[in-house]
Amino acid sequence: MFPHHTQIAEYFNSYVDRFNFRQNIRFHCMVTNASPLDGGGWEITLQDGSTHRYRALLVANGHHWDPRCPEPPFPGHFNGDVIHSHYYKVPDPYVDKRVLVLGFGNSAMDIAVETSRVSTMTYLAVRRGFHILPKYILGKPLDQPVLPAWLPYAWQLKIIGMALRLQVGKLTDYGLPAPDHKALHAHPTVSSDILPRITHGRVKIKPNIRELAGDEVIFVDGTREKIDSIIYCTGYKVTFPFFKPEVIEAKNNELPLFLRVFHPRYRDLFFIGLLQPLGAIMPLAEFQSIWVSKYLLGEYALPAEKELLHAIQHEREAVRKRYGNSPRHTMQVDFPPYVKSLFTEMERGSKRPASPPLIQCSVEAVTADT
Ligand SMILES: NC(=O)c1ccc[n+]([C@@H]2O[C@H](COP(=O)([O-])OP(=O)(O)OC[C@H]3O[C@@H](n4cnc5c(N)ncnc54)[C@H](OP(=O)(O)O)[C@@H]3O)[C@@H](O)[C@H]2O)c1
Hints:
Elements: H1 5-18, E1 31-36, E2 42-46, E3 51-54, E4 57-59, E5 66-67, E6 76-78, E7 81-84, E8 98-102, H2 106-116, E9 121-125, E10 132-133, E11 136-137, E12 140-141, H3 153-168, E13 189-190, H4 194-199, E14 203-206, E15 209-214, E16 216-219, E17 224-226, E18 229-232, E19 236-237, E20 269-271, E21 276-278, H5 282-296, H6 305-323, E22 332-334, H7 335-351, H8 363-369
Parallel strand pairs: 4-20, 6-15, 7-18, 8-9, 8-18, 9-14, 10-13, 21-22
Antiparallel strand pairs: 1-2, 2-3, 5-19, 11-12, 15-16, 16-17
NADP nicotinamide-adenine-dinucleotide phosphate binds next to helix 2.
């Protein structure tokens, strides 16, 4: 099932209560700076100007909050209103409007479907072809295993690719460009609704925007349409406003990490949930946290520097080979293989010579919490 956002909020709240750490959270408290200290540890500056020192820093500020608009901007001037999908809430402002949605990710799909129910016309501008996956395969939500676990993951991908071709057919028959990659070699665009909206004539497909021309938009194929509102569904930048660029910077959304958690330079800095799974992120964030807590308690030791750097390089090359050089795909992981590698690494690291714990805490407390 796909839970409602209120259920997700309820889950987070009950998680905090279950593990009894609400008193450790400071709400409405922005971190404005995080600087590494000589000899280890971090100094954190809060919005009120106060500074605090910590032995280790876990960063979990998310990577879908800093909108990425088309860069460079499209030439020309547009008379209508323009927003990024980050600010889209409801379709009401688009009643009887001619709406242009740009992008081919999940935001573009959901927003084009919603506005198409109220708009005069919704245009969907896409700059390249993607596979569109239905929300359910064989009656199960897409991220639930439909094939036996003993099948190698590469085979599972192939079989799912074939099932998609049978279920969805050729996307070019819907007026969409042909995908320029194999199924699941891009972050999946999932929608069971967009294709019927196209075939019902409520969403019209266009290529990328070439130019803004007052009340009109001109597309790269030379066609032009009168448009009232543009919604850029062009994704997000990975940014850390509390780090100075010389401390941490993710240029083009690149931040190579050991299994998407450990930073090669700072051994007391960890990233939680900074990954793009084919599947749900919350269980992965929880497993990552267990891994970090074992490290902090001295129950897990990292591999030697050379091995660690090699693993980071290998992971980055594998992602680049499968997904190409796109800022959208710098931190992709497949859910089951990623979980397997986390637990394998935890096991390996528990057998390496132990390093002294970074923090003091009773093992029982962590075990009970996890
Ligand atoms: N229902 C859901 O579960 C749901 C709904 C919304 C979002 N999400 C999730 O939220 C995350 C963000 O999704 P998103 O759709 O907002 O962003 P996204 O996945 O990054 O997709 C951005 C889209 O915009 C295109 N694009 C970027 N710059 C462009 C430009 N200058 N001109 C034309 N096209 C451009 C990209 O094409 P290229 O690939 O060619 O760069 C891509 O098709 C994803 O993890 C997504 O799964 C989930």
